[in-house]
Design goal:
The complex is a heterodimer of chains A (about 160) and B (about 400). Helix content of chain A is about 45%, strand content about 15%. Chain A has about 160 residues and is α+β, with helices and mostly antiparallel strands. The longest helix of chain A is centred in the C-terminal third of the chain and has 20 residues. The C terminus of chain A is likely disordered. In chain B, about 40% of the residues lie in helices and about 15% in strands. Chain B has 14 helices and 15 strands. In chain B, the strands form four sheets. Chain B has a seven-stranded mixed beta sheet, sandwiched between helices. In chain B, helix 2 packs antiparallel against helix 10, helix 4 packs parallel to helix 5 and helix 12 crosses helix 14. The longest helix of chain B has 20 residues. The termini of chain B are far apart. In chain B, about 55% of the residues are buried. The chains are: A alpha+beta (about 160), B alpha/beta (about 400). At the A-B interface, helix 1, helix 2 and helix 6 of A face helix 12 of B.
Chain lengths: ~160, ~400
């Protein structure tokens, strides 16, 4: 690929929105009264985040994350926790799949307004080495839902590229 | 003089700036040709057939061993065991020598500078044997603290595992001096991880004096999947086999087996003769340049890169001053994560490593989760430095926008 194309993709990847969430992450910190806290490691780089979730009756009531990592993993965690706060389990599941589709290169998903600011991460699909960074928080979320008592009612499709 | 045209991958990608040779080195055409020639002219299973072709394969395998042994200053080629690489060579020692010689209450010494391959095998051996693992700490510059090391050595010390050159920082360790220290204070063996030594320095195994020295072919322009373990004969002879199977046996009785002579005792199964031949060709290639010139070339580039990098605000360089490093430049840029830096550099055609470099104990001591690492080798030139510096400046620009 010509370097100029790659350069354009780099610019598309590192949007203002992503850098803003990297520098000023939302919902960052340990949640003392969390129902579950799930650490998730990216074995490639050793980055680790922990996702903290408090569940409501049929919704994800509160989310926060702690740990450190690259701009992609931090921005993804920041935007994810912001978007999913208060969403019911059905919506969470839809958004989770939608986000995964987007970073795997699904153009329709990248246009889906329900993903909100997370669409800024669509450029990740051009960087296979970085898809895991974008999915780190989401893989932690999947584990958190499994661990949560109500999570058993939710259907879990097979995950591609899930963390070992 | 440019060596880049000797490397087909680089020659056919003029815009590529490969600065990750500490991970693996590119291959000159002569190495690829040697492997192909072996398959086309001399290919059969060595040590097997009573036919001329197998004898030819055996001859080339044996010649490769002599060539590589000579290159690392090992007088007795039978004391060079071919392995898959450094990791397998170090595990061979930790399993074979370690399980035979390390008992509860003994002590093993590693350093905070080690690659996981020369850290975890000793840590696991200590756990299994009930021995204690001691870790030599570093000076603020990222060099081994030799006074600290002296304090760790005693009559209970059974093995001291050190690298020749740090893969993460480029630190060149005084192996001969450390061997002298160990001999004075204990009866411990010295195991040297030479993965980053052999590709860059003239290594004299017999002069350096460790008991074992491990290295990889792929980091010295040789093929993947071949490396070696040099060892002292009396130790290799006293050790049990690491793996058992064909080729490494003498007599197999119903209830017991006797072992083949060195080096075959440690080479179970069909040997990787083709890649040994390729490795010997890599030795030819490096010697045609001269190891003094290899180090001079890469250090000159690394030094210039270090100086220019240090002029960029917010760049932090890790490790000792350039004159005490191999061609490795480990750095961070402000709060830009090394992974992001590597992605942006990739956009400029610059390949660097970002991560913990398989040295998590070292990263903890440096108080970082990762660094960016540019590593130079024979085929690099000033255009690679320009691209690296431009890329780092671009990363600074991209991340500068959102700086608070």
């Amino acid at each position: 690929m010509p370097p100029s194309d790659r350069s354009a993709q780099i610019s598309a990847l590192y949007q203002e929105m992503i850098l803003d969430h990297y520098r000023k992450p939302r919902n960052k910190g340990v949640m003392e009264n969390a129902d579950v806290s799930v650490p998730m490691k990216n074995p490639l780089c050793g980055d680790e985040i922990t996702l903290h979730v408090r569940f409501g009756e049929d919704a994800v009531e509160e989310l926060s994350f702690s740990g450190r990592g690259c701009s992609i993993s931090q921005a993804s965690a920041s935007m994810m926790t912001h978007l999913l706060k208060g969403k019911d389990f059905g919506d969470v599941e839809v958004l989770r799949n939608r986000f995964r589709d987007m970073v795997m290169g699904d153009d329709a998903a990248a246009q889906d307004s329900s993903l909100g600011s997370l669409r800024a991460l669509s450029g990740v699909s051009r960087f296979p080495a970085r898809v895991k960074c974008a999915l780190l928080a989401w893989n932690a979320l999947e584990r958190a839902l499994e661990k949560g008592s109500v999570a058993k009612e939710i259907e879990h499709p097979e995950q591609e590229g899930a963390e070992p | 003089m440019s060596f880049r045209p000797d490397f087909p991958l680089l020659a056919s990608n003029p815009d590529l700036h490969y600065l990750d040779s500490a991970a693996t080195a590119q291959k000159p055409a002569s190495v690829l040709d040697a492997i192909r020639d072996f398959y086309e002219t001399s290919y059969a299973n060595p040590h097997r057939g009573a036919y001329a072709l197998s004898v030819a394969a055996t001859d080339r395998y044996d010649a490769a061993r002599r060539r590589v042994a000579g290159f690392i200053g090992l007088a007795d080629p039978d004391c060079l065991v071919f392995t898959r690489g450094t990791t397998e060579a170090l595990n061979l020692v930790a399993y074979s020598w370690g399980r035979q010689n390390v008992k509860a209450g003994d002590e093993l010494v590693v350093t905070a500078l080690e690659h996981h391959a020369n850290f975890v095998p000793w840590q696991q051996l200590a756990i299994e044997a009930g021995a204690t693992l001691r870790i030599c700490e570093l000076t603020p510059d990222g060099e081994l603290d030799l006074d600290f090391l002296a304090g760790l050595l005693n009559a209970r010390t059974r093995a001291v595992a050190i690298n020749h050159v740090s893969n993460a920082l480029g630190t060149i360790n005084p192996v001969a001096e450390i061997v002298r220290m160990v001999r004075e204070c204990s009866s411990a063996i010295v195991v040297c991880d030479g993965a980053q030594g052999v590709p860059h320095l003239k290594v004299g195994f017999d002069d350096l004096g460790p008991d074992f020295y491990a290295f990889s072919g792929h980091k010295m322009c040789g093929p993947m999947g071949i490396g070696g373990l040099a060892g002292r004969r009396e130790l290799l002879e006293s050790m049990p086999p690491f793996q058992t199977g064909g080729d490494m046996v003498e007599f197999v009785y119903d209830q017991e087996t006797t072992w083949n002579a060195l080096p075959h005792k440690f080479e179970a199964g069909t040997p990787n003769a083709a890649d040994a031949v390729g490795l010997a060709a890599a030795v030819d290639y490096l010697e045609s340049i001269g190891m003094d010139e290899v180090l001079r070339h890469e250090r000159a580039l690394m030094t210039e890169a270090s100086d220019r990098m240090a002029e960029i605000d917010e760049v932090k360089i890790y490790g000792p001053p350039p004159e005490r490093r191999s061609g490795v430049l480990s750095f961070t840029l402000g709060d830009v994560h090394p992974h992001d830096l590597a992605t942006i550099l990739d956009g400029e055609g610059v390949c660097i490593r970002a991560g913990n470099h398989c040295t998590q104990p070292l990263m903890r001591r440096l108080d970082v989760s990762a660094t960016a690492r540019a590593s130079f080798y024979v085929y690099n030139d000033r255009s690679d430095i320009d691209a690296l510096i431009d890329g780092v400046k671009k990363a600074k620009e991209i991340f500068g926008h959102a700086a608070v």
